[in-house]
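Support request, please re-run this one:
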Amino acid sequence: MSQDVSLAERTLGELLPDTLRSSNCVHINKGKEIWDVAGMLVQYLESVTDSVVVKDGRELVGIVGGKEIIRHLLKNSTPKLFYERRVEEIMDPRIITVLEKTKYGDLMDDWRKNERAYAVISNNAGFYSAISARKILEFGMRCETNMSISDLSKKQHVTFKKNDTFRSVINSMVDNKTRKVLLENSNKYVNDRLIIEEITQKMSYLRGEEDFLDNVVNMELEEAKIISENLKINKVSVIMHDMEHPCVIYKDWIVTPHDVCNALLSPEITEYS
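Re-run finished. Output below.
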């Protein structure tokens, strides 16, 4: 489809006519322990959704993602955070709700303001469906453009060393507003999901520790997919859409779904199939 109108000016209903409401909105009830939402984030972060919505009855009252867990770990790095506090104590009350007529550019503006690539849209089941950066890859795959990876802005690589502690890595995440930190001189990385998973899996062992963030990061890491070609944005979208935890590296470029989301705002991209 082409009318020389940028994707930023098109509506979500135009860009995702068949799948706008196809992604489930993962939710948890207000009053649940942070332990419960941590387990859900381990299961769903990046692979299905990037956040869990908090419900009070049928009303959406907030949202919890990896960054809420990570930031509160720095304030209270003991098992008490998980067992003595409730999800509403750490949730972000700001929830972005969109409509079919919401323009893609407006959605991205809201994501930047909230520093979270997540929104909800009401569905025919009487609840909500989720829209995340992974969902945007669906029309990223169908855009027709000559823009390639080398046209994207290079991001400074945030790295850690083998003997760094969880505290050091989490501080790097917070200070640099990133969810991924690369192991120095490798394509392996740690992110919020892996940290939450490691801590929750070892919770019974960590119960006796006053501060478990001083432990060294010693766990199995994720690997970014290394590609050798300077692929077009639509091809990169295809690759990442099929990855459980999408992240690719081409030379000095690290590309995530959020980078594709930003690239699709280019006024030069007006065509998609």
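The chain has a mean pLDDT of 91. The chain has twelve helices and 14 strands.
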